[in-house]
Amino acid sequence: MPEIKVLPEDVVSKIAAGEVIERPASVLKELIENSLDAGASKIEIEIRKAGRGLIRVHDDGRGMDREDLRLSLGRHATSKLNVFEDIYSLATFGFRGEALYSIFAVSRLKITSFRAGAESGYAIEGEGGRVIAELPAPPVKGTTIEAADLFFNTPARAKFMKSDASERAQLIKTVEEAALANLGVSFRLVIDGAEILSLPTLPGGLWENLKSRSASIFGKSTYGGMARVEGKTTGMAVYGFASRPDALCATRVNQHFFVNRRPVSSALLRQAFYRGYGHMLSGRHPACAIFVELDPGSFDANIHPQKRDVKFSGENEIFKTISNTIYEELLSKQTAAVNMTAPAGEVKFGSPDVPAYREAAAPPQAAAGPGSVQDRTGQYNSSLPPLSGNGTGGLFDQHAAAAPQPAVPADWRGHELKYLGQLAKSYLLFECEAGLLVVDQHAAQERVLFEKYLDEFSKGAVRVQPLLVPLETELSRSQMETVLKWRDWLKTAGFEIDQRGPAVALLRATPALFYFTQPAFSEFLGYLSEVLGEPEKAAEDMKRGIIATMACKKSIKAHDFVKPQEAMRLMEDLKKAKDGYHCPHGRPTLFHLSGSDIARRFQRSAAL
Ligand code: ADP
Ligand code: MG
Fold first, then answer.
1. What atom of ligand 1 comes closest to residue 30's alpha carbon?
2. Residue 87: what pLDDT?
3. Which of 63, 95, 272, 456 could be joined to 319 by an S-S link, Cβ 3.0–4.6 Å?
4. Out of 93-97, 428-432, 588-592, which region has the weakest mean confidence (pLDDT)?
């Protein structure tokens, strides 16, 4: 009696289904891809009971005739691949011919389709892989696929499904990604009778459509905090929308990556994207729709059966291009975006719906060394309510929501400033154009220091200050190795570092602009060695940016009390800064209350 037996067809089909169809969202993804492959310009989706009840996809694509309809349900039935070599040049999503077969195996399926030129439409119905009926249907352009009662015959599998809420979220994300990736196709999603997404195609080009879809998909407030990014290197382009550093989100849910217009999940892309933010994240997450365009020969999208993961051949190049694009685009765009009196709907003072500003103004969460800026900001924040309130009787809450937004941004750089004084040893107050300019002195100092240092560094002329008593810090072996490897480069950055024991580093000199305490230096070097540990991955000027940001953060700033001349001096420096509006971590350095803002608080109609 042989022990080996050939599995019956229905077992085989259920096993195959398990590989392709993991959850309702995978069914939906396959069906949408089939519609796209069929050249649809309109895809309508209806979901019931988080996909367990029904997943229905209707498209206006080329459709199938009776013969094709029958064939489509068989295993390895595809119209997209003829010879193996085609795999390398396919422009379609599918080619394995497994999706319909697998879905059919674990659901009650009905397909209705009409191909131009055929006598009539046709429908086929069945369940668990068995055809039950074939019938004629009206000649309606395209194909409608209804998959009902998913996993009805594989109860063990059904048990592994997540909560309805999580399945629904995944279904919505599937449509969102398809819609972001296929701007020329209109999408509509209805769940349990309610329209969740309606994304028509608009006249205009890529950016118009991407903008309007992003606004619907991310929601107004998240989208309002995003900036357009674009970058290019040979053989590669990156573009899309990404959160500004002052408008980050609490989770990663709003991140979408695409390679050649296909949604992917790639650790490489995500890491490169995060690296682009350098040190500006402090535990938060940027939202994004990032599109990477590559030569099709330079990556492999087929290593995963569901084609979410991709493998790249030029990883370093890709990493660099993405992180550099984000870094440069976001830094250069910050000034314009977080202008203090931004257009209505973006940054509003005191109104309860100002997540962007309020988050930015909150103290950073990361631990700080003694005497650092974070300490002081933290202390201040705990003893005084934040200026922009939280909707519970904050200073300026009451009328702001109803009040019109301040119109023209005050160009504080161009105006004469009159120093009024210092508040809580942390804020400098200036009169500007009959309004009030409030400056976070530590943020401003950091910005000025940062730019001075970067300027010296890029000119190869960092002024160095030897330490009378060298600072010592213990590192891990691998960190020590990295530091030694980068010793010469660190020297050009103004840091003279020696090795003491096998894993003890000795700091003999620092840039003259900085002053470190021992714990701050430890943190600085520990972090730096991690960044430098990926030598190929971060480009030179980004490393410079990172070292400057870190150094500014860890360095002790000028004393808290500021004399009037010092305050004026700081403002002169800040006026000359490339980005006077933000500290190097992306927090604001100042804001302006115009005369009319102030008048409004007192319910006066006229300005002061
Ligand atoms: P694959 O997409 O890998 O070819 P599928 O099982 O997803 O395999 O689909 C099998 C075949 O059925 C496709 O190759 C295509 O010819 C046909 N088909 C599936 N869905 C549609 C659709 N919405 N419109 C037209 N043809 C379709
Ligand atoms: Mg397919």
1. 7
2. 61
3. 272
4. 93-97
Q: Is the pLDDT of residue 190 over 90?
A: yes
Residues with CB under 6 A from ligand 1: 30, 34-35, 37-38, 59, 61-64, 72, 77-80, 94-101, 143
CATH number of the domain enclosing 22: 3.30.565.10
Q: Do 367 and 493 share a domain, yes or no?
A: no
Q: Which of 84-98, 119-133, 158-172, 301-315 has the highest mean pLDDT?
A: 119-133
* Residue owning the nearest CA to atom 17 of ligand 1: 72
Pocket test for ligand 1, best of 56, 72, 102 (most atoms within 8 A of CB): 72
Ligand nearest to the CA of 95: 1
Q: Is 364 left (phi over 0), alpha (psi -120 to 50) or beta?
A: beta
C-alpha to C-alpha distance for 80 and 98, rounded to whole angstroms: 12
Find the angle CA(362)-CA(364)-CA(366) to the nearest 5 degrees: 155
The atom number, within ligand 1, closest to the CA of 100 reads 6
| % of the chain residues with pLDDT over 70 | 79
pLDDT over threshold 50, residue 369: no
User: Where do the H-state alpha helices sit in 459-501?
Assistant: 477-485, 487-492
The Å distance, Cα 98 to ligand 2 centre, comes to: 7
Name the domain boundary from 159, 175, 199. 199
Residue nearest ligand 1's atom 16 by CA: 79
Q: List the structure tokens of 457.
A: 């560094």
Distance (angstroms) between ligand 2 centre and the Cα of 34 equals 5
Please check whether residues 138 and 60 belong to one and the same domain. Answer: yes
Q: How far is CA 170 from CA 30, 159, 197, 257, 434, in A?
A: 14, 17, 14, 15, 52
Does 216 share its domain with 186?
A: no
Ligand 1 atom at shortest distance from the alpha carbon of 99: 6
User: Of the ranges 30-34, 79-83, 188-192, which one carries the lowest mean pLDDT score?
Assistant: 79-83
**Do residue 135 and residue 189 come from a single domain?**
yes
* Integer-rounded Cα radius of gyration of the chain: 30
pLDDT of residue 360 exceeding 60, the answer is: no
Instruction: Return the ligand 1 atom nearest residue 34 CA.
Output: 20
Residue 22 in this model has a pLDDT that exceeds 70 = yes
Rounded to an integer, the average pLDDT of 149-167 is 83
Domain assignment present for residue 398? The answer is no
Number of structural domains the chain divides into: 3
Structure tokens at 74: 């068989």
Domain with 559, as residue range(s), is: 412-592
295 and 153 housed in the same domain: no
Name the residue at shortest CA distance from atom 13 of ligand 1: 78
List 110's β-bridge partners, or say none.
125, 146
Ligand 1 centroid, distance to 76 Cα (angstroms): 10
User: Is the pLDDT score of 347 beyond 70?
Assistant: no
Strand partners, 186: 42
Q: Which atom of ligand 1 is nearest to the CA of 98?
A: 6
Ligand nearest to the CA of 38: 1
Per-residue pLDDT at 386: 27
pLDDT for res 558: 56
Mutation choice for ligand 1 from 30, 78, 124, CB with most ligand atoms inside 8 A? 78
* Cα 33 to ligand 2 centre (Å): 6
